[in-house]
Design a protein that fits this description.
Helix content: 25-40%
Strand order of the largest sheet: 1-2-3
Protein name: NB-ARC domain-containing protein
Shape: elongated
InterPro entries: NB-ARC, P-loop_NTPase
Structural class: alpha/beta
Pfam family, one: NB-ARC
GO molecular function: ADP binding
Organism: Aegilops tauschii subsp. strangulata (Goatgrass)
């Protein structure tokens, strides 16, 4: 299990300071500039959602100690070249397919109504 975890959606326009501040807050570290030392030697999980450029990753990665066996940084992006830039090990890159219409609609109604609902019957 991870000692510390954080999930952040990347804001656009990109703001490195706010991102690091959000990560530090989720880790429970008050000193934003000390995040690297705070994470060093700990098991941590970080999810960075919607990375849109290699420049963003290059600005962020210096704030994390090298990932070891017990640490993970998961990045979501819509661009394959960004994924390849972030992970030199291509076996760690997963290309997810979009949902088919029915599954997307079921997920939407589950989130909105708390159950899968047939919208055609509900709202003719």
């Amino acid at each position: 299990m991870f000692e510390k975890s954080a999930f952040v959606t990347i804001m656009h326009p990109f703001n490195r300071e706010k991102l690091i501040e959000s990560l530090s807050r989720q880790f429970g570290e008050k000193d934003v500039e000390n995040m690297y030392q705070y994470l060093e030697g700990r098991k941590y999980l970080v999810v960075l959602d919607d990375l849109s450029s290699t420049t963003e990753w290059d600005a962020i990665k210096q704030h994390f100690p090298p990932t070891g066996i017990a640490n993970r940084i998961i990045i979501t992006t819509r661009k394959e070249d960004i994924a390849k830039h972030c992970s030199k090990r291509h076996k760690n890159i997963y290309n997810l397919k979009g949902l088919v219409y029915k599954n997307a609609l079921d997920l939407f109604t589950q989130k909105i109504f708390g159950k899968i609902t047939n919208l055609d019957e509900q709202y003719p």
